[in-house]
Amino acid sequence: MRRGDFATPRGKIYLDGNSLGPLPSRAKEELLARLDEWEQRAVEGWDAWFDFAERLSPSLARLVGARDDEVIATGSITSNMHALLATFYRPQGPRRHLVATSLDFPSDLYALNSWAEREGAEVRLIPSRDGYTLHDDDVDAALAGDVALAWLPTVLYRSGQLLDVSRWTRVAHDRGLLIGWDAAHSAGSVPHAFHDDEVDFAVWCHYKYVNAGPGAPGGLFVHDRHFDRVPGLAGWWGHDKASQFEMAPTFRKARGAGAFQIGTPSILALGALKGALEAFDELGMTAIRGRSLELTAHLTRLVDEVLPEVRIVTPREAARRGGHVALAHPEAGALSLALRARGIVPDFREPDILRLAPVALYNDEADLERTVRVLRDLLDSGAHRDAVAASLVK
Ligand SMILES: Cc1ncc(COP(=O)(O)O)c(C=O)c1O
Fold it and tell me: Three-state SS string across the chain, please?
């Protein structure tokens, strides 16, 4: 795998792979191959496409530490959450509430709230003491009592804090709760062991660190001890494959996570995903995580040395940080715009976070050194304020 295998915008330093990964050449080839098949075979293409998602499962399973039939590429994070909540959120008696965090990505909260409202239950949010991270004691306190299901992010999308999936899954189970994970910011960046950790279910996307393209099909995991559960949102694509085309009026679910598919998948999008996954199959998550930790450590050192007025809100310990480094600064929005104008692509998250994601597959130390140098120049000259003024005038 070489940096040149990724089409980062020409001449730019791309540090936004935690939002949208750049196009891998293999993804483009596989997508074009699907277009050719469509052109040449039209409906007969389905002979080869029918179980396309299932054929990607071994690669997905390696990504998150699962068995092949525990994972499927389908839907989006939010639609997969709904499919899982419809199946597993069954409030009983007093044990009826949901737990999430005050730092969650909003779509997760919208999904959880829509289910809580149906059931007259609460979504209890684990508070943050500093506005960026979660304290273990607060997570521990929340996973208790009259809660039916907890929903946690593996990596917090703003600060990049990595939660201990194994520990909190065990705690939840000891207290009789089901637990689901949103692995949007860890899939393709941090290895997981969802099967061995006995995670109940999880979702993630493939458009960030996995580089499968804008709106790529998501990922869904259901532990095999739950394979007897019938999906709460059934559709014909989740039917047992061998008999799907018998068109029976009653739903006979597929074995495993495939049962959580609902409608016809986008074969073009699965094509891009197939190509994007090849890098992960080749390198493996252990090597990718090792390199990612080197890069985030290097960036942290540089920021400490060169930008002392900028606060790093990502936890310092390797075991508690994901794949990006979050810098808090009151002018983060203006700095982000000014970096982009200078050929460096970070991203900004309200209210004051500049996120920099040095990705193992295509970034290197020189990218980070240049980024920090440009940030130093901006802070010294104040030129980032001009960028904001110019953007307001337009
Ligand atoms: C942590 C997290 N959860 C959920 C979502 C929403 O994902 P989707 O649009 O695939 O439903 C995102 C999107 O970036 C995210 O970062």
Answer: CCHHHEECCCCCEECECCCCCCEEHHHHHHHHHHHHHHHHHHHHHHHHHCCHHHHHHHHHHHHHCCCHHHEEECCCHHHHHHHHHHHHCCCECCECEEEEECCCCHHHHHHHHHHHHHHCCCEEEECCCCCCCCCHHHHHHHCCCCEEEEEEECECCCCCEECCHHHHHHHHHHCCCEEEEECCCCCCCCCCCCCCCCCCEEEECCCCCCCCCCCCCCEEEECHHHCCCCCCCCCHHHECHHHHHHCCCCCCECCCHHHHCCCCCCHHHHHHHHHHHHHHHHHCHHHHHHHHHHHHHHHHHHHHHHCCCCEECCCCCHHHECCCEEEECCCHHHHHHHHHHCCEECEEECCCEEEEECCCCCCCHHHHHHHHHHHHHHHHHCHHHHHHHHHHHC
Task: Select the CATH number that applies to the domain covering 3-23+284-393 from these four: 2.40.40.20, 3.90.1150.10, 3.90.79.10, 2.60.40.1180.
Answer: 3.90.1150.10
Among protein residues, the one with the nearest Cα to ligand 1's atom 3 is: 105
Q: Where are the domains of the chain?
A: 3-23+284-393, 25-283
C-beta of 182 in contact with ligand 1 (< 6 A) = yes
Q: Ligand 1 centre from 39 Cα, in Å?
A: 33
CATH class of the domain at 25-283: alpha beta
Q: What is the pLDDT of residues 186-230, one digit of tens each?
A: 999 999 999 999 999 999 999 999 999 999 999 999 999 999 999
For residue 208, indicate whether it is catalytic. yes
In short, whether 213's Cβ falls inside 6 Å of ligand 1 is no
70-114 per-position pLDDT tens digit: 999 999 999 999 999 999 999 988 899 999 999 999 999 999 999
**105 in active site:** yes
